[in-house]
Each structure stands twice: as structure tokens, then as C-alpha cells.
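Might I ask for a little of your time on a matter of protein folding? Here, with my thanks, is the record as I have it:
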Amino acid sequence: MADEDDYFRKLDAEQTEQARAQRTELHRNKCGKCGGDMRTEVFRGIEIDVCNDCSAVLLDPGELEQLAGSDSTDTFASFFSMFGSKKR
């Protein structure tokens, strides 16, 4: 009985991993807003991702700070604290 339980536990783990990999691949380079394909553009020397369909912009961690420059008023720190992120 233990061998059978181990077999099904292993089978379940493999199926779960396959499903996770498929989801990751389906969502790679897709817009979080509309699901359209994202393209990379250079804006002020920073590579940003822009949706081909709705023009939404995706910034990787730290890119907003790079684009906006230094923040002497701690506006970014306040903004990021609302979302539980730390200013980098």
C-alpha cells in the first residue's frame, strides 16, 4: 500500500509541476491588463515592456526610480510602502 501511495504522490507532483510550467509559458511576455503580447522598447535608456494592444507599460523593479530620478521628498518611499514594497 505504501508503494502505491508513493506512486500516486509522485505522479501528482509531476502533473502539478507540468501544469505550473504550462501556466508560466502561457503568461510569458503577456500584458497583465489585457493579455496582449508585450514588446521591449528603450525609453530614456531604460528597457521597458509595452503592450502591443492596449499600450500598458510594465516596469521591472527599480526602473521607475531610474526614470523619475532621485526623490528628495520620499514620495516613492510612501508610494511603495502602500504596497508593502521597499524602495530599492
